[in-house]
Amino acid sequence: MRLDRVRGLAGAVGLLGLLSGAGLAAEPPADRASFHITPVEGPSWRSHLNLPFDQSAMGRMGVTSGPLPSRAVNPWGHSALPESLDRPFVLTGADLYRLNCQSCHNVGGSGSPPEIRSLIDPVRATSFEVTKEQLQRRGAELSESAIREMAAQARASLLDRFQNGGERMPSFRHLDSTEVDVLLSYLRGLAALPESPGAPKTVSEPFLRVGEHVVKGTCYICHDSTGPGSDAMATTPQLIPSLASFPEQKSVAAFVRKVKEGAPAPGTLGKTGRMPVFSYLTDEEVTAAYLYLVAYPPRPGGAPGTTSPHP
Ligand code: HEC
Ligand code: HEC
Question: How far is the CA of 276 from the centre of ligand 2 (A)?
């Protein structure tokens, strides 16, 4: 990790708290299952699938209007809880969803069928009550233990999806068990399961981990880890610049503006380029993504299209 550079930048973005290292710790708090921050590696998910920019909704669904989730959504550009780069972030399941899932599955989870299937039904299938009711409606008689077994299997296949991805969905191996637990409790609310959701769960994380979520859950869908930057767009206008090029070629402020408000691609006119505008990310989250790219320089290697597993 290149903390020296992050500390240097911290002064530049006016984050004196970072100089003392608060919120920077790369290791999880003692009461927390382990997580391990790793660099983003290899070609983007779209390069991996060989998906031309215009032919897929992946990474572009974040701000579309869909059916709203049953639980209140945070207003655009706000996380559930106040955040600051000079102390650890407190993330809710809604935040983890926003950073990792929303750009493909949209706010309500409905995705963009048929390419991106809705995640609501697979989450509903993890509920004993829902499964029982569906079976009854179809006139199927099953024992309680058989129904419990079906719901448990649905949960196992959901967890397997995070570990190994789907046919065309990337893996989310960077999520640890605590994050998965917090995310699942949010998904259960989103899918309006009859079982009580319980108190909303949260997880506290250093901002570099938050940056890892933003990059691996969202940016990496379109951007290769390494390769040419936007300076090469003069000769190759269709190029999507690499993640590694951002800290070298963009200031933090220009980076945050591009992501949150949009900016034209170099040498083009207009208000935004082809990249979607991610107005639902906060300034702090986007800054965290930049600092993560500085601290953990992206790597060319790795199996194509997979984020690094825990070592
Ligand atoms: C890069 C886009 C992308 C991201 C990001 C993404 N998904 Fe998916 N997801 C897909 C696609 C495409 C499918 C359908 C094809 C497949 O299963 O691979 C899918 C399918 C699913 C399904 C199964 C739907 C079914 O009917 O079987 C679930 C559940 C799911 N995603 C949950 C999630 C969750 C939770 C997250 C965030 C941690 C997430 N996805 C992030 C693209 C994505
Ligand atoms: C749906 C695909 C897609 C996703 C997802 C995406 N980008 Fe982009 N991005 C592009 C494309 C295409 C370009 C080049 C054209 C343009 O500038 O709009 C680009 C350009 C950029 C640039 C400008 C580079 C420069 O030097 O001018 C930055 C910075 C950037 N992206 C950051 C991000 C970050 C950070 C994320 C994640 C929060 C992200 N992008 C997610 C498609 C995407």
Answer: 8
CA 304 vs CA 42, 109, 152, 203, 218: distances in Å: 6, 26, 31, 30, 16
- Ligand 2 neighbours by CB, cut-off 6 Å: 53, 59-60, 103, 214, 218-219, 221-223, 229-230, 240-241, 246, 249-250, 255, 258-259, 265-266, 273-276, 278, 289
Token pair 């099953």: residue: 142
> What average pLDDT does the segment 57-64 reach?
87
The full length of the chain comes to 311
Instruction: Please tell me the distance from the alpha carbon of residue 215 to that of residue 202, in angstroms, as a whole number.
Output: 21
CB 56 within 8 A of CB 273: no
- From residue 15, alpha-carbon distances to 4, 85, 162, 248 in Å are 14, 7, 34, 20
Q: Please state the rounded mean pLDDT for residues 98-114.
A: 94
Report the separation in Å between the CA atom of 295 and the middle of ligand 2, taken as the mean of its atom positions: 20
Answer whether residue 186 shows pLDDT above 90. yes
- What the block records as the tokens of 271 is 């208000």
- Cα distance between residue 6 and residue 2, in whole Å: 7
Q: Residue whose CA is closest, atom 32 of ligand 2?
A: 259
Tell me the mean pLDDT in the region 18-33. Answer: 62
pLDDT band at 196 (very low <50, low <70, confident <90, very high): confident
Give the sign of the dihedral formed by CA 199, CA 83, CA 281, CA 229.
Answer: negative
Give the distance (Å) from ligand 1 centre to CA of residue 111: 8
> Looking at residue 303, what is its pLDDT?
55
